[in-house]
Amino acid sequence: MNYIGSKGALAPFILSSATLFAGTLHDKTVCDLFGGTGSVAEAFGLTCKALIANDVEPYSALWLHQRLCGVQTDEALLEQMRQASCEGIVCEHFSPLGEAKRGYFTPQNARKIDGARAVIVHHEKHLARAKLQALLASLLDGADRVANTTSVYGSFLKHTKFTATQALSLRALPATRLTNATVHNREGLALLEEVEGDILYLDPPYNHRQYGLNYHVLNAIARNEARDIKGKSGFGNYYRSRWCQKRGVEEELRATLKTAKFRYILMSYNDEGLLGTARIREIFEEFGRYDCVSQAHPRLRTSKKSPKKETIETLHLLEKES
Ligand SMILES: C[S@@+](CC[C@H](N)C(=O)[O-])C[C@H]1O[C@@H](n2cnc3c(N)ncnc32)[C@H](O)[C@@H]1O
């Protein structure tokens, strides 16, 4: 998935910096509180003793679960999903078939997505949760590849782009099957009250763009629910992260560092974020020994007008005073 803020390419840099700062990872419990696509969580999970991965968004938690500790996808059910077609919430709210004529998916693909979702609902009562999650993750993956957007779902394109004209295809997603991992779908600060470990990795949103809004269509498919959908882009109610609010972000960072029962805390943040590097340093220093390392990182460009191709990613490091 082409995900805003994905750190796939930076994972080796983050892991080597974590090792230099905190020592070997083999005996450490690591928590990735803002897991997203799971690229960093997976890299930690392959090396550390135990992994706790989390994301507040349902579509992301599903994705994380399948990637990190999912089961093999049931091919027979996936085939049923491929053959299915009917009209449901995607046709009604996110395709030109609905009253609002939103163009996130072509009518054909919207019917296929609704059909595949209905197959999952049909089997919900007797299938194990992990099996359902594997099927849902495949559906999210397939839907995302034929979405008529610039990667995010803040709006749909006026004209149907080539990839959106292709028929929905569903594939089994690989699962790393980490036996040392647990995945949560919680608000980060609330989860921190309940878990403890050695290394806490933070990769919060760094600007106003709320993930719940930018990926609202994936959440609607994941939940099979389209409540309070309105407006041209069809946003429903979505979770508003305090990390995306200029007025809330500083307090959220301080509360996170204070609450964390982890000796080492690492936070990725880039040079265009709501919090400046100097301010982050001041807040980190309230809690212990601070260090930082930086690296250039390619930006996810949703438009050719995006100003720069690269941003500077800084990894802020804290050894918390006990
Ligand atoms: C920059 S992305 C993480 C990207 C991830 N490191 C990767 O490589 O894919 C930030 C993530 O934080 C999640 N998020 C935002 N606010 C949150 C909160 N309060 N608690 C937990 N997760 C949150 C978003 O849903 C999003 O997936």
* Count of alpha and pi helical runs: 13
Q: For the record, what is the CATH homologous superfamily label of the largest domain?
A: Vaccinia Virus protein VP39
Query: Which cofactors or ions or other ligands sit in this model?
Result: S-adenosylmethionine
| Low-pLDDT residue intervals, each spanning 5 or more residues | none
Count the beta strands: 7
- Strand arrangement, major sheet: 3-2-1-4-5-7-6
Can you describe what's shown?
There is one protein chain. The protein is an alpha/beta fold and 322 residues long. The protein folds into 2 domains: 1-49 and 185-203 and 251-322, Vaccinia Virus protein VP39 (Rossmann fold, 3-Layer(aba) Sandwich), CATH 3.40.50; 71-174 and 206-240, no CATH class. The protein has 13 helices and 7 strands. Strands 3-2-1-4-5-7-6 form a 7-stranded mixed beta sheet, with helices on both faces. α2 links the parallel β1 and β2 (50-54). The longest helix is centred in the middle third of the chain and has 17 residues, at 107-123. The radius of gyration is 20 Å and the shape is globular. The protein starts with 10 loop residues before the first helix and ends with a strand. The model has no long low-confidence stretch (mean pLDDT 95). It binds S-adenosylmethionine. S-adenosylmethionine binds next to α2. The site of S-adenosylmethionine has 24 residues, from α2.
Main attributes of the structure:
38% helix, Rossmann fold, single chain, 2 domains, seven-stranded mixed beta sheet, 322 residues, alpha/beta, binds S-adenosylmethionine
